[in-house]
C-alpha cells in the first residue's frame, strides 16, 4: 500500500516574492508566486537547511564539510583522486606543479582548513569551519573520542547502511543546539520538532524504496526497522550526556521521530552537484603552454599535464558511477532506455576485493587501451569528478511536482547554494513546480517513479500522453 506523506503549515519563511499556502487537492501545501517572473530569469537563491557530501564521493572530491564547495587546493584535489599507492609515481613526478598551476591561474595559494579537534573534516575557510561547529559539528565531532564511543559506532553503522543516517544526526545535533540557545527544555524541543514536520514526511519504512525487483515484504520492513532502531539507539547514547532533557524529548517516542526525519529526507531532499573547477583551470594552463612550444620546459610540463589527464580519464572510467555520485538508478528504467545507464561502478574496487577479478581486470585493461587512444584535446574535454551530495532546502521542499514544470533548480557556484529559475512565464498566484523525476521519461515510467512520493500524477502532460498511448494501441489492434 502506498503511504501518502503528511505535512502542514509553518516552518522557515518563504523567499521574497513567494508564499506558502494550501494547493489544489489532492496536494497539500505548495509554494506560490506573489510577483511576476519572466521565463529564464532567476526567482530566488537559497542555502540548504542541512547538506552533506555522499561518503563515496569523498573518494574523488575534497569538499568543504559545511558549504560543500571544492576546497581551494589543486594539490589536495589531486591527492584525493590519486590517493591509491599505484599513483604515487605520478604525484611524485608532478612535484610542485599543482601548486604552481593554482598560483599561475591567479587562484592564490592553496587553502585547506581542518577541524581543530582532528576528526578529519576539511573546510574551505575558517568561517565555514566555525559555522559548521556552531551548527552541529560540536556534538558530532569524533576527533577526541575512543573507538568504542557510541557516536563512532553510529557513524560506522551509517557508512555501512545509508548516508542519510549521518544527515539525520546533523539534524538532531542542530535541534539540540537551537533548543539550548532558546533556553532549553522539553517544550522548546517539541516546538522545534513540530516545525520540522511541516514538510512532507512518513516513517522511513514507508518512505524508502526497496531494491529494484523486490517488494516491501515482511523481511524488508524488519530490515528497515532494525536499521533505524540501531542507529537511533546509538545516536541517543552519543548525544544524551550533553543535553539529557532535550535528547529525551527527541526520543520520547523511541526511534519514531528519527524514522520520520529519515522519511522526510526521502520525500524532500534533492541531489547536490557542484562542478569541479579543475577542468577549466588545467585547460587554460595547457593552452598557455601550447603558445610556448619552442620552450623545452613548456614542452616537458605539457607532457606531464597530459600524463595526469590520461590517468584521470582512466580513473573516471573505472570508478565513476553510483557509489561516487550517490545516484542509484532504477534498473527497470535503465533497461527500458528511459534514463542514462551509469558507467561500470568501481571496477578497481572489485578487482582489489577479489570480486569477479578477471572481469574487473579486463574492464580496467580495456579502459586503459581506450584512454591511450585519446588526443590531448579530447583529454582536456573529459569531465572531472563533481561534488555529489544530498540536501534539504526549505523552499524547494515546498514545491510540488509537475511533469511540465515551470521551475528548475541549479547550483551555479562553488557551494550548495541553489538558484531557482523560471522556465516559463510566471504570474502572481501561479504555483511553482519542479519535476521530481526524469522529465524525459515516458508517462508509465514517470508514474512508477512518482509512486515513491505517494501519488499518481495526473497533470495535463500525463493525461495527454495517456491519450496518445491509447490511440497508438488502438491503431495497432485494428
Automatic annotation (TrEMBL):
CDD domains: SET_SMYD (cd20071)
Annotated SET domain residues: 243-437
InterPro entries per record: ATXR2-like (IPR044237), SET_dom (IPR001214), SET_dom_sf (IPR046341)
Name of one Pfam family that matches: SET
A Gene Ontology molecular function term of the record: methyltransferase activity
Identification of the protein by name: SET domain-containing protein
Organism of derivation: Symbiodinium pilosum (Dinoflagellate)
Taxonomic lineage of the native organism: Eukaryota, Sar, Alveolata, Dinophyceae, Suessiales
Amino acid at each position: 500500500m502506498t503511504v501518502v506523506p503528511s505535512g502542514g503549515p509553518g516552518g522557515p519563511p518563504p523567499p521574497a516574492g513567494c508564499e506558502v499556502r494550501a494547493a489544489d487537492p489532492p496536494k497539500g501545501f505548495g509554494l506560490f508566486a506573489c510577483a511576476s517572473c519572466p521565463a529564464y530569469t532567476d526567482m530566488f537563491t537559497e542555502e540548504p537547511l542541512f547538506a552533506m557530501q555522499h561518503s563515496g564521493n569523498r573518494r574523488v572530491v575534497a569538499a568543504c564539510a559545511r558549504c560543500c564547495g571544492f576546497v581551494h587546493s589543486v594539490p589536495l584535489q589531486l591527492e584525493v583522486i590519486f590517493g591509491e599507492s599505484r599513483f604515487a609515481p605520478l604525484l611524485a613526478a608532478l612535484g610542485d606543479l599543482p601548486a604552481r598551476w593554482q598560483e599561475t591561474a591567479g587562484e592564490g595559494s592553496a587553502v585547506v582548513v581542518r577541524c581543530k579537534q582532528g576528526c578529519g573534516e576539511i573546510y574551505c575557510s575558517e568561517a565555514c569551519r566555525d559555522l559548521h561547529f556552531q551548527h552541529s559539528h560540536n556534538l558530532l565531532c569524533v576527533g577526541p573520542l575512543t573507538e568504542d564511543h557510541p557516536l563512532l559506532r553510529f557513524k560506522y553503522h551509517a557508512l555501512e547502511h545509508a548516508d542519510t543516517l549521518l544527515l539525520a544526526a546533523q539534524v538532531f545535533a542542530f535541534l539540540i543546539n537551537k533548543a539550548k540557545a532558546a533556553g532549553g527544555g522539553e517544550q522548546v524541543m517539541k516546538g522545534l520538532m513540530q516545525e520540522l514536520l511541516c514538510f512532507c514526511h512518513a516513517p522511513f519504512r514507508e518512505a524508502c524504496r526497496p531494491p529494484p525487483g523486490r517488494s516491501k515484504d515482511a523481511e524488508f520492513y524488519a530490515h528497515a526497522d532494525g536499521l533505524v532502531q540501531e542507529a537511533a539507539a546509538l545516536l541517543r547514547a552519543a548525544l544524551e550526556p550533553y543535553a539529557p532533557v532535550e535528547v529525551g524529548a527527541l526520543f520520547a517516542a523511541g526511534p519514531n521521530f528519527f524514522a520520520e526525519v529519515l522519511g522526510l529526507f526521502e520525500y524532500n531532499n534533492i541531489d547536490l552537484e557542484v562542478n569541479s573547477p579543475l577542468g577549466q583551470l588545467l585547460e587554460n594552463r595547457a593552452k598557455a603552454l601550447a603558445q610556448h612550444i619552442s620552450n623545452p620546459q613548456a614542452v616537458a610540463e605539457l607532457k606531464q599535464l597530459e600524463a595526469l589527464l590520461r590517468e584521470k580519464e582512466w580513473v573516471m572510467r573505472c570508478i565513476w558511477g553510483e557509489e561516487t555520485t550517490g545516484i542509484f538508478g532504477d534498473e527497470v528504467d535503465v533497461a527500458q532506455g528511459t534514463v542514462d545507464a551509469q558507467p561500470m561502478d568501481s571496477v578497481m574496487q572489485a578487482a582489489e576485493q577479489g570480486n569477479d577479478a578477471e572481469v574487473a581486470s579486463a574492464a580496467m585493461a580495456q579502459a586503459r587501451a581506450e584512454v591511450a587512444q585519446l588526443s590531448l584535446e579530447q583529454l582536456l574535454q573529459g569531465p572531472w569528478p563533481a561534488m555529489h551530495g544530498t540536501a534539504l532546502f526549505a523552499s524547494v521542499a515546498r514545491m510540488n511536482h509537475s511533469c511540465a514544470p515551470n521551475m528548475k533548480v541549479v547550483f551555479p557556484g562553488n557551494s550548495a547554494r541553489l538558484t531557482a529559475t523560471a522556465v516559463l512565464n510566471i504570474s502572481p498566484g501561479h504555483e511553482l513546480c519542479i519535476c521530481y523525476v526524469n522529465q524525459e521519461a515516458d508517462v508509465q515510467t514517470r508514474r512508477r517513479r512518482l509512486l515513491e512520493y505517494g501519488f499518481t500524477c495526473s497533470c495535463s502532460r500525463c493525461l495527454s500522453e495517456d491519450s496518445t498511448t491509447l490511440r497508438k494501441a488502438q491503431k495497432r489492434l485494428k
